[in-house]
Amino acid sequence: MKNLLTIAGSDSSGGAGIQADLKTFSAHRVFGMSVITAVTAQSTRGVFAVQDIDPGVIKKQIEAVFEDIAVHGIKIGMVSQIQTIQVIAETLKQYPYKNLVVDPVMISKSGFDLLQPEAKAALISHLLPMATVLTPNLPEAEEITGMKVQNLEDMKKAAVKIHSLGPAFVLIKGGHLQGDAMDILYDGSSFTTYTTKRVATKNTHGTGCTLSSAIAANLGKGESIQVAIKHAKAYITTAIEHSFSIGRGPGPVHHFYQLYHPDS
Ligand SMILES: Nc1ncnc2c1ncn2[C@@H]1O[C@H](COP(=O)(O)OP(=O)(O)O)[C@@H](O)[C@H]1O
Ligand SMILES: Cc1ncc(COP(=O)(O)O)c(N)n1
């Protein structure tokens, strides 16, 4: 069994954050574990409150897991504030962690700041250099680089710039583009493009969380970066195709491994 850890925020509506990550891990048949950084009161319609978890308790959660259990891959999502970022970076460095996927979550699709604006610099300086793969969406790539990122050319330029900040691989997600859903991977020398047809749906709550957890799960199972992302892209696309409406806002995606691995 491979053991995967998510370090992220809780979404009470179950579509994003820790809940999406654990569902994704289960669907990939890996054992999911969680370090909760913040609790959000959230629905498909918005985020109504955030309670940050005490940094000392975040540290204890990470230590409790690593002191006892082999961790084959990690996904980091919502990190909320400077102290949270600092304690995660410091504590992970106590261990020989590997396969670290960092999703630099900043603003929810509903427009709420999941990362306090003053914590952006800490995220860039502390967590980016630790990442095996960093997975910004277009607005996050703009925040990290300070440049406009609106088309394929911009995505390539931004990927090179972000790569220079330390992550081994950069995957810029094009979910916010028009037309095909195109993501671009940069490994420091060349680009790989992952393209699928855009699914016509408003139910994309938690797509970024799901993709990054699927990549971590696949890396934890020993897949190469390119293959891990190819399979994760297939997983998120199928999950979006089977997404559904619960509540009045953008609904969640559907987590079933069998949807794209019917024989397994
Ligand atoms: N409507 C869609 N149809 C197909 N794929 C999509 C759609 N929206 C997003 N994706 C894909 O879902 C993944 C998450 O992307 P994105 O929505 O940009 O991230 P985030 O949730 O961080 O904003 C990417 O692989 C992206 O290409
Ligand atoms: C706790 C938490 N973590 C991450 C997201 C981002 O997901 P999305 O970009 O789909 O709003 C979220 N809404 N809530």
UniProtKB/TrEMBL annotation:
Annotated Pyridoxamine kinase/Phosphomethylpyrimidine kinase domain residues: 11-254
GO cellular component, one term: cytosol
Family of the protein in this entry: Belongs to the ThiD family.
Descriptive protein name: Hydroxymethylpyrimidine/phosphomethylpyrimidine kinase
Origin organism lineage: Bacteria, Bacillati, Bacillota, Clostridia, Eubacteriales
Protein's UniProt keywords contain ATP-binding: yes
Pathway(s): Cofactor biosynthesis; thiamine diphosphate biosynthesis; 4-amino-2-methyl-5-diphosphomethylpyrimidine from 5-amino-1-(5-phospho-D-ribosyl)imidazole: step 2/3; Cofactor biosynthesis; thiamine diphosphate biosynthesis; 4-amino-2-methyl-5-diphosphomethylpyrimidine from 5-amino-1-(5-phospho-D-ribosyl)imidazole: step 3/3
GO molecular function: ATP binding; hydroxymethylpyrimidine kinase activity; phosphomethylpyrimidine kinase activity
